[in-house]
Amino acid sequence: MSNPPSPPSSNQPARNLGDVLREFAGHQQTMRAELAKVIVGQSDTIEQLLVAIFTRGHCLLEGVPGLAKTLMVSTLADILDVSFKRIQFTPDLMPSDITGTQVLEEDDAGKRSFRFVEGPIFTNILLADEINRTPPKTQAALLEAMQERQVTVGPQTYPLPAPFFTIATQNPIEQEGTYPLPEAQLDRFMFNIKVGYPSASEEEQILTATTRGESQNVNKVLSSRAILNIQKLVSSIAVNPLVIRYASQLVRATRPKDETAPQYVRELVDWGAGPRAGQNLINGAKALAAMNGRFSVDTKDIQRIAAPVLRHRIATNFQAQAEGMDTDAIIERLLQDVAEPEPEKMAKS
């Protein structure tokens, strides 16, 4: 198992940023190779999951049953030397089933006291399976944990382990007996990742591999300490002010009442993305640059993650549905219409 990149000690020569980035790029390639032992295809989904982990983000995986969403998350936890727990969300799940509860105990002297028993949320990677199958009251139990990395039970606040990630799954086609996630909770997810069907060749590989009765073992690649070091590395990646302006303009163009919004956004969108979307665009682009061994962010990095960052932060109206325009189609048009900064200006700045 690998532990770098980490700061050099006083007895070791200082490494330059280029060496650290190349080492990190090698680690993420190793992670992809380990995941490929179990997961066939889904390269974009895997890339976005890695970006979220390297930027302290949370993910919502959306896809029909049988696309290996749960297997993908559990395998990702296997290649990381971190704790992993899964919660199967059901209509009768209570908030205390997630966060934990106070238990009354009596000692040998007869003195009674409360002891906090941790719930499954006290882990590094939490898989919230079929999160939309539980009522909003229970869904809200995740809000504080996802944003503040802590849980409050009664008068006490308990910090969660570091690193902490929530990866939730939901089925987009079966809506009977489900509870759509509130907008406030959707906004806590860095990415809304659409998990699609495999290609014909990938499906043949899946059928071949899964019907042999053999299981693949994966190797651990990164420890929790290494993940925290990588998160610090990613945050230090440079971002040109013009790239920040481009991300801001892209986000503002999703808001129907903004003066920069195109006419089709004014007609088809009820409300657009908030500032957290811009933060996620920048942080995700930093991770993409670092994963490719680059020192700075490019607008192509912003464009690559625009759809998973924005699709759950744009609300379309009935006119959009009538015209067959979903959020992905609107994002695609915005990427064509929002002007990129000129390379000459980026080079000068």
From TrEMBL:
Family according to the record: Belongs to the MoxR family.
Protein name per UniProt: ATPase family associated with various cellular activities (AAA)
InterPro entries reported in the protein's UniProt record: ATPase_AAA-3 (IPR011703), CbbQ/NirQ/NorQ/GpvN (IPR050764), ChlI/MoxR_AAA_lid (IPR041628), P-loop_NTPase (IPR027417)
Pfam families membership: AAA_3, AAA_lid_2
Record keywords, A-Z: ATP-binding, Nucleotide-binding
Keyword Transmembrane helix (UniProt): no
GO molecular function: ATP binding; ATP hydrolysis activity
Keyword presence, Ligase: no
Span of domain ATPase AAA-3: 58-191
Residue ranges of domain ChlI/MoxR AAA lid in the record: 266-333
